[in-house]
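User: Prokaryotic-type class I peptide chain release factors domain-containing protein. Structure?
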Amino acid sequence: MMSRKVLNLRLGYLARRWASTDPLNIQNEKLQAYLESLRQEYYAVRVNAAGNSKSYARLAQLEGVVSALEQRRVLERQITSAKDMEAEKDEDMRELMREENEVYVDLLGKQDQALLQELLTLSDDEMYPALIFGLNAGAGGQEAMLFAQELYEMYTGFFEHMGWEWEEFASEITDIGGLRHASLMVSGEDAFRWLRHEAGVHRVQRVPATEKSGRMHTSTASITVIPRPADIHVHIAEKDLKIETKRASGAGGQHVNTTDSAVRIVHLPTGLAVEAQSERSQLKNRELAMKRLRSRLVQQQLESAEASKMATKKAQQGSLNRNEKIRTYNFVQDRITDHRIQGGTMHNLDGFLKGGDQLCGLIEKLQLEHRKERLKELLDTWEPPKEAIKEN
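Assistant: Predicted structure:
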């Protein structure tokens, strides 16, 4: 029978061997070197940070990782000290040190997880103040448009759940209450980091209410998420606008229907046209129409830049099928399956479509996987600096 000492030696060897091959294990040598470089950078930046906003911003980014790393090193020293004390001749003291060491080892494991979380957050550098969120009905006719409307309600509910600001600036509704397309401006803390995972094709499988034979139909809708940088601006010259006024149509009361309060603006260089008639005042409708036009022009500019970026990626990476479905909503089985991660299947479709905690939990899983892949890519290309930064 294998002795306890030999077993511990073998387990220790296997743990070190596994740690050396797993790039995201804190014991990994390259990850250790990377963490040390971040710690040294932190102290070097801190010396010269006075009055420098960029330095303060970088310190804020690094602080969580460095603090967690320093706490980890304190625990390592305590473990070493407890092990040294196990050599004491007094048996009671040795037993006490062994128990203390077990506590420190448990704390070290938890601290490693905390450190990894800080590191994963640091590696995610995609930060934008706002984004344009687009929904488009896909294959499936009226059923696809009804599904797109359900997604619209789910996501706007999610925006409210997260406390983000959002505004619709373009949409087209069908006679039966479906949605052909909609564009929304969304802003809020980390909104882009969360919503980027929703971009792609969403598939629905269900029996439509009008289907007499009980056949299940498959329809799709697509989501686009385009980041809006803080420095993007759109200039609109008055000479480039054609402004028309007319009487508003539809519900709204006698005043709305009998005065020329509705406004239609055409941007002549692009041909984009927007309308506004929800306000009683023509002036307010004009302001609203101009706001929508500005958002449409920003969207057009960002989509053009995004298309160029994707074309470059495609040229570098070869064929890339962007229309591959990312998620299936199966009403017959009351099931949602995200096809990008393990354990991406859940139930309770009605709850999920409310855009609350269930959707939040799924996106958190996607966020974690994304950050792990991002950190692996970063470590794969990272090289230790030739000269270590001296700590002051």
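The two ends are 54 Å apart (CA to CA). The domain at 238-303 is CATH 3.30.160.20 (Double Stranded RNA Binding Domain).
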